Amino acid sequence: MRYEFHPEARLEYREGAVFYDARRPGLGAAFTIEIEAAIQKILEAPECWRFVEQDVRRCLVHTFPYGILYTIEDSFILIIAVAHGSREPGYWRHRLQ
Predict the structure, then answer these.
(1) Of all helices (H) and strands (E), which one includes residue 67?
(2) Quick one: CATH architecture of 2-85?
(3) How far is CA 15 from CA 9, 50, 54, 62, in A?
(4) 76-84 and 2-5 as β-strands: parallel, antiparallel, unpaired?
(5) Residue 37 neighbours by CB distance under 10 Å
(6) Looking at the chain, which terminus has fewer C-beta neighbours within 10 angstroms, N or C?
C-alpha cells in the first residue's frame, strides 16, 4: 500500500526534522528514521492502531513525542498530521475536509 501526506502534515514532518537538527546535529536524521519506521508499521498493518476520532487513527513514534494521524483510504494511507504530543488536540481536524 502507498501513502500520501496532507501538505500541512508534510510541513510538520520537515519542521520537526529541522527543529531537532538545530538542537543537535544528527538528531533531525534520527527523527526522520523514527517517523519513517512508524509509517512503515502503518503500511504493514494499517488497522492495528486505535481511532482517535471518526476514521482517524494514531500511531505513536518511538523516542520522540510525536504521533502520526492517518486515515485509510481506498488505495492509500493519508497522513493527516505528524503531531507533537504537546500540541493542541484536534488542531488538524480542518484537514479532513
Answers:
(1) strand 66-72
(2) 2-Layer Sandwich (3.30)
(3) 10, 26, 27, 18
(4) parallel
(5) 13
(6) C
Kindly list the strands in the beta sheet with 56-60, ordered across the sheet, starting from the edge strand earlier in the chain: 2-5, 76-84, 66-72, 56-60, 51-53
Closest CA to 59 of 18, 7, 9: 9
pTM exceeds cut of 0.85:
yes
CB 59 within 8 A of CB 42: yes
Angle, vertex CA 36, rays to CA 30 and CA 40, nearest 5: 145
Q: Which residues have a Cβ under 8 Å from the Cβ of 2 and sit 6 or more positions away?
A: 75, 76, 77
Cell numbers linked to 29: 536524521
* Residue appearing with cell numbers 538528531: 27
Under the banding of pLDDT at 50, 70 and 90, the label for residue 1 is confident
